[in-house]
C-alpha cells in the first residue's frame, strides 16, 4: 500500500512535537509494509532546515505576511493562499500524481480543503482512502473567534475519513461522535510516545553546573506554562545551579517583556539553549538532575512527558502535563505539583534529591513509540490487506 | 570571630548620610559598643573578592563623626616648566613595564597590586602632565587600537585621583596578605547595601565552605515589588543579590513588620528555601536626629535662607524619585492653589534628587498654573537643617507609593507635627495610629484634610496632640534590639532552619 502523508511542516528534521509524532506515524506505517511519502506544505521561513525535496512545496514568506495582515491564521487559513498558479501547488500536484497513493493521511485538519481541491482533478487521489491523523481537538485550542470554523472543519473531515487516529481516548470519543453514523470507521487511539534512548552514552556535560531542564517548542502554551509555573523570579534554582531551557520556547520567552524583568537574575540562573539537535538534547537530558514539565494548557497529550518518563530522570510536572498519562502519575520519581508554589518547591528538591528517578525501563516501555503505536501498526496492516482503494465517488 | 561588613559606609563615604548609611552607621555602633574587640569590621574588595579588616580607630571616628573621613591620595602639583613636566611623563612611561615586571602574579591579587602601583605612579603626575601625556597616548591609540582598554583604565584612575576618591591608605588596607580568613569567622553581619557588588557571593561561599552564620539586615523589597520605579541599576542588582542571600542566610532583620511579611511572602511565592519565621525579626529604626538643640538664631537663619516662615510651610521629606510620589504632591498643590489662590502655604520638598524625576521637575518649573515658589525644592539638606524644617513646618505630607518603613512619618510625629500619608502598609505601621492615612486615589480626601489642617485650628490642635502622643523610638532602642536579637541567635541555631 502506498501511503501519502500531507502535513503543514517538513519531517526531515523532526523537532517539535507535531513533527515527531507525524514522523513516528510514518515509521509505523513503513514498519507495517507501506510505501510512504510525506509532502509538507509550509512557509519556508518557518522551517529553514527542510531538505531539498521538501522545499519544492515550501511557500514564500509574503503569503504568510498576507495572512497575518488580514488577522488570519497560518494553519486554519493556509488553503486560502494556495492558488493553483503557485509553484508549490504545481509540485504538490505532480508529486501526488506520480506517487499514486492508495491512502492519504492528513496530519491535522488544515490541509483538508487542499486535499479536496486536488482530489477533484486527480482521480487516483479521489479513490485513495482518507486517514485523519488528529493531534488534538484543534477547536478547543484556538482563540474563540476561530472555534466555530475549526470545529466545522474537524467535523467535516471526521465525517469523510475512512480511518481516524486520535491521541487519547477522550479525543477519540469526540472524533467518533463527529464521524456520525459511520460506525464501521475505525478510530485508533495512538497515544504520544518517544523513542527509547539508544546509541552511545552522551559525552561530557555541555552545561557544567548542576541543572534541571525544560524543553519545549515555540508553541505559545509552552511559554505560558513556563511563566505560570516558574514565575518571573527563578528562586527555586540555587546559586551555582541552572535552569536549562531547550527548544523554540526560548525565542518566545526572550521576546516576552515579562521575562525581561529581573534580567540580571534570570541571565545568571536560566540558560537558554535555543533549538538543539538530537545529540545535544540527549546530552542535556542525560546530565540533568531532573526534568520539569511546566505544562498548564494546550491540548492533546504531551510528547515531552513521554520523553521525561522514558529518560528515567526525576520529573516535576503540572497536572496538565500528565493528560493522557494518568496511570504514570504514581511512577517512581514523578512529582505532580498542583500549584505554582508546589511546583517551585518540588523543583528546588531536584537539586538535593538523587539524580535518578526510581523507575525501571520495563515500567516506562509502554511510553515508547513502538508500544503506543502498536494498535495503529495493526490498523495499517489491516488496511493494506483489504481492498487497495475505494470506489470513485 | 564576628565579621561586620562596613563596605557600604566606606564606598559611599563621600555621600550625605541617607537612610541606608544611617542604618549601617547605627548598626556599626551597636556592634562596636556591644562586642568591642570581638567584632572585626571589614571592607569587601570586589576586584580581589576578599574582605579586609578596618582599624578600630577608624570605626570609632566613624561613630563619633557619623561620617567616614579617609585621606585621599595627593597628586603632584604643576611642574615648574615644560621640560620638568616632560621628564615626569617619561618617568611614568618607564615605570609601567617595571610595574608589570614587579607584580607578575596572575589572579585578583596580582592585578590589584599592579593597579595600586600604577595609581601611585600616576599620582606623581599633575593634571596638566597627564593631559599632555594623554594627547600623545590618544594619537598612539589611533595607530594601535589595542591600547584603548589600557588608556580607559588610566583615565579612570586619573579621574578618581582628581576627584579625591582614591584612598591614600588603600595600598596597605587592601594588601592581599591582610585578607580575612573565613575559617576563623563564626558570624558575618551585613547591614548595608549588599547588592552593590558581589560580596554576597563571597559570604555565601564562606558559609558553604566554613559553615559560618550569615546575618543580614534588609530594609525593603522595593527593587522586587516596585521595580518599575526603582533606580535602574539597583532594580537588576538587588534581586540577584537577594537570590544568593536567601539561599544562604541564617538570620534576617527587617526594619518593619511590613518588610518582614514582604520578605516571607517573596520566599514562599518564588520557591526559595524556607526560613523559620522566628529567624526574621523586625527591628525598628530610631527617629531622633541627634544634632543637639539648635540655637534660635541658627534656626532663623536657616529659614531665612530658604525664605520660609515659622509655621508657614508644609514639608515633604524624601529622595526625589517616582516611588515617593512627588507627582501626586505637585498635582495636589496645583489644585489647592487653583481653588484657594493666594491662601496656600509653600510646599517644601527636602531630599536629594534621585532618578527618573527630571521630567516632573521640568513640569513643576515650567507650570504657569502654579504660583512662583509654591513648591520649593531643597536638596543637600543637612541633619541640622532637616531638624529645623521639621520643627518649623505646619505639618508634613508623605504620599509615597511604597516604603520599607517610612522614616519621614515617624520623624514628623517625633517633632510633634501631624502627617498626612498614603495608605501604604508600612506607613500605616510607622504612623502608629497618629497619622492621617488617605489613599492617593482619593484626591478630594487629601484636599479636604490639607485644608482642615491649614484652616481649622481645632482640627490642627487635635492632630498635633495625636502626633505628640506617639512615643518616638530612639536609635538606642534600635541598637539594643539588634544586639539582643543577634545574641539570641546562637542558642536557637541548631535545627531552626527549615
Automatic annotation (TrEMBL), chain A:
Ranges of residues in domain Glycosyltransferase subfamily 4-like N-terminal: 43-193
Q: Which GO terms describe its molecular function?
A: glycosyltransferase activity
The keyword Cell membrane is annotated on this UniProt entry: no
Q: Enumerate the UniProt keywords alphabetically.
A: Transferase
Q: Which Pfam families match?
A: Glyco_transf_4
- InterPro entries under this entry? Glyco_trans_4-like_N
Keyword Cell membrane assigned: no
Would you tell me the protein name for this molecule?
Answer: Glycosyl transferase 4-like domain-containing protein
UniProtKB/TrEMBL annotation, chain B:
Is Transferase one of the keywords UniProt gives this record?
yes
Q: Which domain of life is it from?
A: Bacteria
Q: Which residues cross the membrane?
A: none
Q: Which Pfam families match?
A: Glyco_trans_1_4 (PF13692)
Extract the GO molecular function terms from the UniProt entry: glycosyltransferase activity
UniProt keywords, alphabetically:
Transferase
Q: Which CDD domains match?
A: GT4_MtfB-like (cd03809)
**Which SUPFAM superfamilies is this protein grouped with?**
UDP-Glycosyltransferase/glycogen phosphorylase
Has keyword DNA damage?
no
Q: Which PANTHER family match?
A: GLYCOSYLTRANSFERASE WBBK-RELATED (PTHR46401)
Q: What is this protein called?
A: Glycosyltransferase involved in cell wall bisynthesis
Q: Which organism is it from?
A: Lutimaribacter pacificus
Amino acid at each position: 500500500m502506498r501511503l501519502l502523508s500531507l502535513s503543514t511542516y517538513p519531517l526531515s528534521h523532526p523537532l517539535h512535537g507535531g513533527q515527531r509524532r507525524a514522523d513516528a506515524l510514518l515509521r509505523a506505517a513503513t514498519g507495517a509494509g507501506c510505501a510512504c511519502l510525506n509532502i509538507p506544505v509550509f512557509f519556508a521561513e518557518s522551517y529553514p532546515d527542510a531538505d531539498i525535496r521538501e522545499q519544492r512545496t515550501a511557500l514564500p514568506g509574503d503569503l504568510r505576511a498576507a495572512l497575518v495582515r488580514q488577522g488570519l491564521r497560518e494553519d486554519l487559513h493556509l488553503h486560502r493562499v494556495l492558488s493553483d498558479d503557485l509553484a508549490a501547488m504545481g509540485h504538490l500536484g505532480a508529486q501526488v500524481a506520480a506517487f499514486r497513493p492508495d491512502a492519504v493521511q492528513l496530519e491535522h485538519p488544515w490541509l483538508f480543503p487542499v486535499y479536496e481541491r486536488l482530489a477533484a482533478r486527480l482521480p487516483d487521489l479521489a479513490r485513495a482512502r482518507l486517514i485523519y491523523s488528529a493531534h488534538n481537538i484543534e477547536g478547543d485550542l484556538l482563540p474563540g473567534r476561530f472555534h466555530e470554523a475549526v470545529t466545522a472543519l474537524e467535523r467535516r473531515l471526521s465525517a469523510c475519513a475512512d480511518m481516524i487516529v486520535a491521541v487519547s481516548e477522550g479525543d477519540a470519543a469526540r472524533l467518533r461522535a463527529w464521524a456520525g453514523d459511520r460506525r464501521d470507521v475505525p478510530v485508533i487511539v495512538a497515544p504520544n510516545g518517544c523513542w527509547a534512548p539508544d546509541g552511545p552514552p552522551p559525552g561530557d556535560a555541555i552545561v557544567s553546573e548542576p541543572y534541571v531542564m525544560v524543553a519545549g517548542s515555540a508553541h505559545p502554551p509552552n511559554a505560558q506554562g513556563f511563566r505560570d509555573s516558574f514565575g518571573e523570579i527563578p528562586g527555586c534554582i540555587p546559586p551555582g545551579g541552572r535552569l536549562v531551557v531547550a527548544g523554540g520556547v526560548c525565542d518566545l520567552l526572550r521576546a516576552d517583556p515579562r521575562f525581561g524583568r529581573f534580567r540580571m537574575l534570570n541571565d545568571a540562573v536560566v540558560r537558554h539553549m535555543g533549538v538543539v539537535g538530537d545529540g545535544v538534547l540527549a546530552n542535556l537530558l542525560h546530565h540533568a538532575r531532573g526534568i520539569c514539565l511546566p505544562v498548564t494548557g494546550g491540548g492533546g497529550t504531551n510528547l515531552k512527558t513521554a520523553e521525561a518518563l522514558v529518560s528515567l530522570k526525576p520529573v516535576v510536572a503540572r497536572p496538565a502535563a500528565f493528560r493522557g498519562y494518568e496511570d504514570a502519575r504514581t511512577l517512581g520519581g514523578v512529582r505532580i505539583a498542583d500549584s505554582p508554589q508546589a511546583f517551585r518547591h518540588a523543583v528546588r528538591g531536584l537539586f538535593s534529591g538523587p539524580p535518578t528517578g526510581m523507575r525501571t525501563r520495563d515500567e516506562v516501555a509502554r511510553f515508547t513509540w513502538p508500544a503506543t503505536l502498536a494498535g495503529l501498526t495493526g490498523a495499517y496492516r489491516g488496511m493494506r490487506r483489504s481492498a487497495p482503494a475505494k470506489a470513485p465517488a | 570571630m564576628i565579621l561586620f561588613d562596613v563596605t557600604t559606609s566606606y564606598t559611599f563615604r563621600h555621600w550625605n548620610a541617607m537612610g541606608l548609611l544611617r542604618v549601617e552607621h547605627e548598626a556599626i555602633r551597636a556592634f562596636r559598643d556591644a562586642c568591642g574587640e570581638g567584632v572585626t569590621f571589614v571592607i569587601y574588595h570586589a576586584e580581589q573578592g576578599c574582605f579586609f579588616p578596618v582599624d578600630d580607630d577608624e570605626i570609632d571616628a566613624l561613630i563619633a563623626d557619623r561620617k567616614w573621613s579617609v585621606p585621599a591620595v595627593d597628586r603632584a602639583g604643576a611642574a615648574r616648566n615644560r621640560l620638568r613636566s616632560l621628564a615626569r611623563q617619561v618617568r611614568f612611561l618607564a615605570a609601567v613595564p617595571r610595574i608589570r615586571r614587579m607584580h607578575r602574579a596572575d589572579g585578583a591579587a596580582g592585578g590589584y597590586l599592579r593597579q595600586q602601583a600604577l595609581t601611585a605612579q600616576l599620582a606623581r603626575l599633575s593634571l596638566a602632565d597627564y593631559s599632555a601625556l594623554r594627547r600623545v597616548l590618544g594619537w598612539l591609540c589611533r595607530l594601535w587600537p589595542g591600547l584603548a582598554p589600557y588608556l580607559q583604565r588610566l583615565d579612570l584612575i586619573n579621574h578618581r585621583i582628581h576627584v579625591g576618591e582614591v584612598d591614600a591608605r588603600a595600598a596597605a588596607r587592601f594588601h592581599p596578605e591582610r585578607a580575612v580568613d573565613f575559617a576563623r569567622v563564626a558570624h558575618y553581619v551585613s547591614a548595608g547595601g549588599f547588592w552593590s557588588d558581589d560580596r554576597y557571593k563571597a559570604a555565601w561561599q564562606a558559609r558553604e565552605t566554613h559553615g559560618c552564620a550569615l546575618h543580614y539586615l534588609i530594609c525593603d523589597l522595593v527593587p522586587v515589588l516596585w521595580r518599575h520605579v526603582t533606580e535602574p541599576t539597583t532594580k537588576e542588582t538587588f534581586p540577584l543579590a537577594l537570590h544568593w542571600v536567601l539561599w544562604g542566610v541564617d538570620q534576617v532583620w527587617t526594619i518593619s513588620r511590613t518588610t518582614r511579611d514582604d520578605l516571607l511572602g517573596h520566599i514562599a511565592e518564588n520557591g526559595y528555601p524556607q526560613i523559620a519565621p522566628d529567624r526574621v525579626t523586625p527591628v525598628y529604626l530610631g527617629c531622633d536626629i541627634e544634632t543637639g538643640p539648635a540655637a534660635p538664631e541658627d534656626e532663623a537663619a536657616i529659614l531665612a535662607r530658604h525664605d520660609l516662615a515659622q509655621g508657614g510651610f508644609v514639608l515633604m521629606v524624601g529622595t526625589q524619585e517616582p516611588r515617593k510620589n512627588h507627582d501626586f504632591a505637585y498635582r495636589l498643590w496645583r489644585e489647592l492653589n487653583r481653588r484657594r489662590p493666594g491662601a496656600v502655604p509653600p510646599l517644601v520638598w527636602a531630599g536629594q534628587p534621585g532618578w527618573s524625576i527630571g521630567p516632573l521637575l521640568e513640569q513643576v518649573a515650567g507650570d504657569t498654573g502654579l504660583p512662583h515658589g509654591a513648591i520649593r525644592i531643597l536638596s543637600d539638606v543637612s541633619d541640622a537643617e532637616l531638624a529645623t524644617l521639621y520643627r518649623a513646618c505646619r505639618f508634613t505630607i508623605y504620599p509615597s507609593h511604597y516604603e520599607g518603613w517610612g522614616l519621614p512619618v515617624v520623624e514628623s510625629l517625633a517633632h510633634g507635627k501631624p502627617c498626612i500619608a498614603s495608605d501604604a502598609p508600612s506607613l500605616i505601621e510607622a504612623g502608629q495610629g497618629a497619622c492621617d492615612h488617605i489613599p492617593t486615589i482619593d484626591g478630594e480626601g487629601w484636599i479636604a484634610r490639607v485644608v482642615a489642617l491649614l484652616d481649622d485650628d481645632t482640627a490642627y490642635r487635635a492632630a498635633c496632640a495625636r502626633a505628640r502622643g506617639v512615643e518616638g523610638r530612639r536609635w538606642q532602642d534600635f541598637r539594643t534590639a539588634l544586639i539582643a536579637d543577634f545574641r539570641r541567635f546562637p542558642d536557637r541555631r541548631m535545627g531552626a532552619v527549615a
